[in-house]
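Now for a concrete sample entry.
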Amino acid sequence: MDTIFVIMLALRKKYKSGNALEILQEAILSGDLPEGLTVTQSELAESLGISRMPVREALISLEYQGLTERLPGQHVRITTLNDEYIRSIFTDMGIIEAEAVKELSAEKLMSLSMCERQTDFHRTLRRYVAAPLRRKFLEAITEIYLPFVLRHCRNAERIDAVFGDLLPALKYPLDMGMIRSCYAVYSEVLSGGLIRIRRRCTYVKS
């Protein structure tokens, strides 16, 4: 039996619920789908036991989220999420959000600082980012990568605590040095969480 079908059979047993996009997101971020693996839409559809259309739609979203790369002939490659890459995307998230904070009015800062949930915080702040490309990047990181880490990380309390340290800094007069420092720590614990999650998977090289 081909390797891809063995892998996908295991995934079907592990992820018993969810649509094609949710299953593939979880499998790629966790490392259950080996990085660098090349597959076709047909192989994924057959091994998941679903039609090609939802798989095709899922792959479009996954490419936008940086989890797959499109290749010629309806092939796709699973993105290599090594430690350096993971750290870079969360670092970039922190840099973009810190720059956005710098431009906010006192009223908007007050509203932002009252967000108790991390997802609400990032969604609110994302609305204030002027550049569309930066908003799309933040959407992928804060709607896909970050929630995955919060669901599966064993030190979620540590992440919550570091996020909590950021909120009091969002007031006038802004201390951008402190804000950037808080973001640096926040980005590091998020990236460390995802790295540890992936290292628990057999297919991810340490």
